[in-house]
Amino acid sequence: MIFVAEDWYDYELIDAGGGERLERWGQVVLRRPDPQIIWPLTEETELWRKVSARYHRSSSGGGHWEYKTKLPERWTIGYRDLKFYIHPTNFKHTGLFPEQAANWSWMMDKIRSAGRPIRVLNLFAYTGGATVAAASAGAEVCHVDAAKGMVQWAKENLALSGLSEKPVRFITDDVIKFVQREQRRGSKYDGIIMDPPSYGRGTGGQVWKLEESLYPLVELCTTILSDQPLFFLINSYTTGISSTVLSNIIELTVGKRHAGRITNGEIGLPITQKNMVLPAGILCRWEEDDA
After folding, report:
1. If you count Cβ atoms within 10 Å of the first and of the last residue's Cβ in the chain, which end, N or C, has fewer?
2. Residues spanned by the domain of 175
């Protein structure tokens, strides 16, 4: 199954080929590499040549942006009633993964239809796309990320969406240490979201490797789920990991404690000029049976 983020207005994946994406972010058109695009670019049209900026990979790792026009330091795009700041970073990213709108829409519907107060924990929360979505739907949210700059960006996105007064707690900390503390405190959450990196380091230098660390973290998170959890969502961009692996992990942890429905698959973006979908990661969702 593939979950496609189809209802964007301010974002568009115009074309894809030759290892690159051609994307519109508001009024800004960017050209970026993508390892999933292994088919050729059939024709480098004027659209491809007249971009605002292009990211070039370096043979020694990393890369740089080549700016064709002067861009603002950051600009705003919207998804439904949500607003986000966009800023090209040194690692080719822009501060937002637009394919995640498929998950935002799903969780917003779940929260709004729950008919009860919902507490959500967002782990490895980056610039807060899911945090803003959950808060806008009426959830109380705890946002956790080890990078101080990303947490600040998320706060600014929440304010940009007019949601500063919503009950959102921002935590800069190692995710595992934070969950362990919440377990000791007896804290409970109705929804848990995580988007773990392939590799990383916590605030105290702790090493995270997805293959070694994901199962223990998900197992730990089951101890802070409420008695009537609403959902559990894992996203991953780690190459070589199947969504079935995520499904197996959820089945052996959350599924052991709570009856519910598990779905897994890819997440993707429609390519306007090709009538195709670009896969952009994998996910697994657990949700309560009567959802």
Report:
1. N
2. 98-288
